[in-house]
Amino acid sequence: MTARPVLLVTGGSRGIGAATCIMAARRGYDVAVNYQSNAAAAAAVVASCKAAGARAVALQGDMANETDIIRIFAEAKAALGPLTHVVNNAGITGKSSPLAQADTAVIRSCIDINVTGAILVAREAARALAANAEAKGRALVNISSAAATLGSPGEYVWYAASKGAIDSLTVGLAKELAPAGIRVNAVSPGITETDIHAMSTGEAGRVDRIAPMVPLKRAATPDEIAEAVLFLLSDASAYTTGVVLRVAGGR
Ligand code: NAP
Prior knowledge:
By secondary structure, the chain is an alpha/beta fold. Helix content is 46%, strand content 14%. It is globular. Residues 10-17, 34-38, 41, 62-64, 89-92, 113, 143, 145, 189, 191-192, 194-196, 199-200 line the site of NADP nicotinamide-adenine-dinucleotide phosphate. One of its GO terms (molecular function) is oxidoreductase activity. InterPro entries: NAD(P)-bd_dom_sf, Sc_DH/Rdtase_CS, SDR_fam.
């Protein structure tokens, strides 16, 4: 029997991460679902993964915290076996405002998770995937944002800058890991229907406000973003590395 691929998704309990976990389980991956605080949401994702025939486990850990990051990689391996794929997804925006009105704490917490945390997750992914040298098709997908090139003026330019860092990380790490046969790509979503708008930006009506500005005239569903992530995880993209794939409805 061929071993099933083993995927860790950071921030897998809700939104794009949850859609990715469930779609991956349906396509034959075993899945480690990281979450920060919403244990019930993570448990629901694990149940959906198991219903699809996958092995799955929920792993609590703050992806801004190095100790937690290292621990969840170890726990994922202990529960499911050596990792073959990682999705570096956990992220926040912080409350929207022009930069001149932004609190230092809002900026720092965004950079701690979206930049420092994401780079540490990528480092642990590089270590874990390199250690699993005999596995085929190893891949890391980072979740960026169209904000990296739009700049998010008046909303959260610090968040846009954090995602610019993810794009650079993707290009460089792809070149570092290519000789080992490990691919690194990013998905850059446009506005997507998730909790992030009400819970992180503080603007519950943000999707309705932005959707008319999108050439396709609507927000993405989390499944539409997960489809791109699954493509970049899979052997269907075997010759693609160092790419930032924009999935933003033309925006
Ligand atoms: P979301 O619905 O707010 O879900 C965020 C997920 O990340 C949850 O599972 C949450 O866990 C987890 N999380 C948050 N902080 C964490 C931390 N410090 N450590 C571990 N997990 C943490 O977000 P989303 O909209 O799906 O966004 C996912 C990614 O896509 C982010 O990187 C975001 O920047 C990016 N993105 C989103 C959009 C959009 O319009 N939605 C557009 C472009 C890019 P809990 O359930 O425990 O809170």
